[in-house]
């Protein structure tokens, strides 16, 4: 069985995502989640080996009509998704079902993860933001999208 996992944080970087799931995904497609905006909230729990990424805020989705989250939908095996899910939950992210739109305009039923404890806007660690921006570039996003994520990271 295959699962679509929509990512919008450090897992935009396929290298980072491969490290978490223990191999290559079946597919990786740029995709958008409608009616949400990106913000960053304090990270209160994290795996010790990733402490360097946890010195700032973690990406969080907030519902907001008319806004878009640009990310990547990875098609993975159930075992790979389970590895990603376990990793995300250690950070305090919980899974939720969503429908994203792939670059070809076709809807994709996916699972994503979001922080569940809101907080004041907290910019992410530079290394974390670097993984996000690297991933957006890697997956072919335009500079205006990349700049929008950079700005979201710095302002509430």
Blueprint (SSEs and pairs):
Blueprint: E1 2-7, H1 14-21, E2 27-42, E3 57-77, H2 78-90, E4 93-102, E5 107-115, H3 126-138, H4 143-154
Antiparallel strand pairs: 1-3, 2-3, 2-4, 4-5
Helix pairs in contact: 3-4
Walk me through the structure.
By secondary structure, the protein is an alpha+beta fold. The protein has one domain (2-154): Hypothetical upf0131 protein ytfp (Roll), CATH 3.10.490.10. 29% of the residues lie in helices and 40% in strands. The protein has helices spanning 14-21, 78-90, 126-138, 143-154, and strands at residues 2-7, 27-42, 57-77, 93-102, 107-115. Helix 3 packs antiparallel against helix 4 (143-154). It is globular.
Q: What's the quick description here?
A:
This protein has 156 residues and is of the alpha+beta class.
Beta fraction of the residues? 35-45%
Which regions have little confidence, pLDDT < 50, spanning 5+ residues? none
Tell me which oligomeric state these chains represent.
Answer: single chain
How many domains in all?
Answer: 1
The end-to-end span amounts to 39 Å
Question: What best-fitting shape do the alpha-carbon axes yield?
Answer: globular
List the secondary-structure elements in sequence, H or E: EHEEHEEHH
Going by helix content, strand content and strand pairing, the class is: alpha+beta
Taking Cα atoms only, what radius of gyration do you get, to the nearest Å?
14 Å
CATH fold group = Hypothetical upf0131 protein ytfp
- Biggest sheet, open or closed, and with what strands and sense? 5 strands, antiparallel
Number of strands: 5
CATH class: Alpha Beta
Quickly give the CATH architecture: Roll
In CATH terms, the superfamily is Gamma-glutamyl cyclotransferase-like
Mean pLDDT: 92
In DSSP terms (H or I, runs of 4 or more residues), the helix count works out at 4
- Percent range for helical residues? 25-40%
For the biggest β-sheet, the strand order reads 1-3-2-4-5
